[in-house]
């Protein structure tokens, strides 16, 4: 895990190097830069986990550097260390998702604690990403095992959709019910039905709504809720797009 200190005042950089308890932090590399341009060159060649930067430097400011980092290394934890307590600077730092806005001078014990907190956030993010990757690998392995049983996966998915049309449905939930990955299920639906899972669900809901509107005992609002449309206006819009008439017009025609 690497940390980069950016400040054009060499004495300030040396003070941090001498005062912070680096043994406690256990970073692999502690790098330094004296300007925006020098810092960018380091980012281009080395992955930086934690950035500790001043605001005022030759050329571009530390806030501009953090804008660059957000675009090129979004998982880097950024800390501003400055003597400026202006509200506009602090507000910009918040907008840029800085972890901390620290005013100079600061006790090195406190700065060590802040850097330790940043290190822990990086570690937690890495662990969460590993868990996500392991989970996806497990789902993908299940998908590979099920590819020889495509018909069964599709049958399970269609049955699941039919039984939950009134509920909020996501590709992830349906795929989990079929023990396949979301991407694999999408490919199956594209191959079998020529449409995505979401498009299939939408069409199912609209077609069922058409059947229900032929009945005398259900209002349009009841039908919309039954087929999973909580928004009446959106239901009307999608119904007309499919049938060419509004639900009210369709119901009237059916009754006549």
Give a nutshell description of this structure:
The chain has helices spanning 10-19, 22-25, 36-45, 62-72, 87-95, 108-146, 150-163, 171-178, 182-193, 197-213, 220-226, 232-243, 247-255, and strands at 2-6, 29-33, 50-53, 77-82, 100-103.
Please describe the biggest sheet, giving its number of strands, its sense, and whether it closes into a barrel: 5 strands, parallel
The CATH superfamily of one domain turns out to be Response regulator
What CATH architecture label of one domain applies?
A: 3-Layer(aba) Sandwich
**Shape call:** elongated
Query: Tally the helices: what do you get?
Result: 13
Contiguous runs where pLDDT drops below 50 for at least 5 residues: none
Question: What is the CATH T-level topology of one domain?
Answer: Rossmann fold
Count the beta strands. Answer: 5
Cα-based radius of gyration, to the nearest Å: 28 Å
Instruction: Provide the succession of SSEs.
Output: EHHEHEHEHEHHHHHHHH
Q: Which band does the percent of strand residues land in? A: 5-15%
Helix content: 55-70%
Strand order of the largest sheet: 2-1-3-4-5
């Amino acid at each position: 895990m690497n940390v980069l200190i950016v400040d054009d005042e060499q004495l300030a950089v040396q003070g941090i190097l001498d005062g912070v308890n680096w043994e406690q932090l256990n970073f692999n590399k502690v790098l330094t830069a004296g300007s925006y341009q020098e810092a960018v060159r380091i980012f281009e060649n080395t992955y930086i986990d934690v950035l500790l930067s001043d605001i005022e430097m030759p050329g571009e400011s530390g806030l501009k550097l953090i804008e660059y980092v957000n675009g090129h290394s979004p998982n880097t934890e950024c800390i501003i260390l400055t003597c400026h307590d202006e509200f506009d600077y602090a507000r910009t730092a918040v907008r840029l998702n800085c972890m901390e806005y620290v005013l100079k001078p600061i006790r090195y014990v406190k700065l060590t604690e802040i850097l330790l907190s940043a290190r822990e956030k990086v570690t937690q993010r890495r662990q969460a990403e590993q868990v996500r990757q392991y989970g996806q690998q497990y789902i993908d392995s299940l998908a590979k095992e099920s590819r020889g049983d495509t018909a069964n996966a599709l049958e399970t998915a269609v049955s699941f959709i039919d039984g939950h049309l009134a509920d909020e449905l996501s590709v992830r939930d349906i795929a989990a019910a079929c023990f396949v990955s979301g991407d694999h299920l999408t490919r199956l639906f594209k191959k079998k039905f020529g449409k995505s899972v979401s498009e299939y669900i939408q069409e199912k809901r609209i077609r069922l709504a058409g059947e229900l509107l032929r009945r005398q005992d259900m209002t349009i609002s009841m039908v919309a809720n039954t087929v999973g449309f909580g928004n009446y206006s959106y239901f009307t819009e999608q119904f007309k797009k499919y049938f060419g008439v509004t639900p009210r017009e369709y119901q009237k025609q059916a009754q006549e």
